[in-house]
Amino acid sequence: MVDAFSAVFQRPNFLTFVIIFLWGFYIMVTRYNLVKKLIGMYLVQTSVIFFLVSISAKKGATLPILLSTTEPVQAANYANPLPHVLTLTAIVVGVATLGVGLALCAAIYRTYGSLDEEEILKKLE
Amino acid sequence: MSHQLPVILFLLPLLAAISMPVVCLKHRHWSQPISTATLAAMVLVSILNLYNIVHHGEIRYVFSGWAAPLGIEWVADGLASIVLLLLSILGLLGVVFNKPIYPKALGGRIVHFHTLILLFISALTGITFAGDLFNLFVFLEVAAISSYALVGVAGGRALFAAFRYLILGTIGAALYLLGVSYLYAVTGTLNMADIASKLPMLLSSKALVGGLLFMFIGLGIKMALVPFHTWMPEAYTYAPESVSPILAPLITKVVLLAWVRIIYWVFDASIVIYDIPILKIVAVLGVLAAVIGSSLALAQRDIKMMFAYGGIAHIGIIIIGIGQGNQTGFVGGIFYLLNDAVMQAGLFYIAGVAFYLYGVRTIDDLWHIGKQAPWLTGSLIIMALGMIGLPPTGGFFGKWYIILGALEAGNYISVAAVVLSTLLTLAYFVKLFEGIFRQTSARSNIQFGEVPLAFKLTMGITSAAIIILGLFSAPIVQLLLDNALPPGL
Fold first, then answer.
1. Highest averaged pLDDT of the listed ranges B12-16, B66-70, B323-327
2. Residue A67 falls inside a structural domain
3. Does B178 touch chain A if contact means CB atoms closer than 8 Å?
4. I want to staple B417 with a disulfide (CB 3.0 to 4.6 A). Which of A66, B1, B73, B287 is the partner?
5. φ/ψ (deg, to 5) at B62
6. Is A1 helix (H, G, I), strand (E, B) or coil?
7. pTM of structure
8. Mean pLDDT of successive 10-residue segments in chain A (125 residues)?
9. A71 to chain B nearest CA, in Å?
10. Into how many domains does chain A fold?
11. Of A100, A107, A111, the CB nearest to B166
């Protein structure tokens, strides 16, 4: 048990990821305002991106451009570019989703005159 | 040239989708012919592609010359090509079906509709071919974003359904991405074949199990597996009549295909059966989905809602077949997937025609149809035979192989679930036909116009396809056995 706790607190990035993820999830589940739900959704997406960045971070590494062409390549000196590319793509996907979500929110507001889920459900019946 | 076919298949709808808003800015009525022609070309190319792959083996397409573990790779094997042929045919039929219906169903947003449909089809093509977990994620999201927009394209009640779909779908995508990053952290690669070659050494890793579970839950939300299905009936019911017959058969089945690819191609069959026994969970969830989906379908009064819950039950039946972990069950599941896509398309065409021509939304309105609509009633009868699974249709043979596979695995609960789901399906179709043939005095007063050709064509082709899939089930199953089996099963 103590081992498990110390393992968790030695990895603050994982702890942060879990907190942001659950926080976003909590907002999505409990709030009735549609824009707040979108904010929660964006937190969930960002937390996953944060996780992806944090597992690929490396101390003392530099850009993946060869420092010298004569010496053999030392992989430990360079950061892996792949996770960062993945992160960029995931951010773009997240922004696109958020855009569609906000457009839907705007259309819902124009149609029902409200962004509160309960009020909208009342008007639907 | 022939090894470029997978990319041509992807680029055809994508380029048409990009050029559509520009070309149709002034001439809105051009959008229908353009998308019909594009999808017809896609059907031809996918037939060529299937022929090519059956005769010359699978194609591993490497993008811009970077070989597999470094670059992005597409795998065009037998399974992907068969599903792609189905996908392009159903896309084409859906666009044809839209022709007489769009002024009423889409509220003038015809160019938006066609652009989104083409984008959606090209993203689904990407999902079927993707040989890279992250590439799969990107295409999943493109398909998902275009389907959120498609559900809400006509506004009204559908907007709220689309919003719920967006929220749940995005949780699914985030969980899938989390699973992918777990696998990436463990193996250091994203290429499916490369991960598969590294996994046997890493089986003790707990992150592997976590990653697999997160991916399963994420894709489960997107394929409307039972505990996560709540977005699906609303989205399909309130989506415009021209959108639901394209969305309903395609998105859940293609995501299911992606899941099958991860479970059997990335993780090997022996791993998912013995080392990380996720197939047992999959089979149990399939049983739940089959029984709960059919029971909920029986409780509905709205006919589109009823068909959507029927689709949820059928996802369960496919999953039961795939979760047995033997060849018979797997082939049965894939064969049933093909059938189910055709049946879902056919049922939503019927629902669309019933609403557009006869104003039918719920079971209480069904007496409008009566004996005046031989096309509609006839194809509904054939669809019902297929959904219930009676012998001349493909549905029977799919269920037959799934039950044989479950018996082979000694999994009697799965057999019982398939049979129970069949009985419940019978019950809700009896409810539908009772509504149609009920005797009322008001019937003779209502006169309806001629059924448009596009409706006859789409309903006729899907009904014929159900019968053809049944009559030629032996060669199709043989084709699947020869070309679509995962390695090591």
1. B12-16
2. no
3. yes
4. B287
5. -110, 125
6. coil
7. 0.92
8. 77 88 91 92 92 85 79 79 88 92 91 86 82
9. 23
10. 1
11. A100
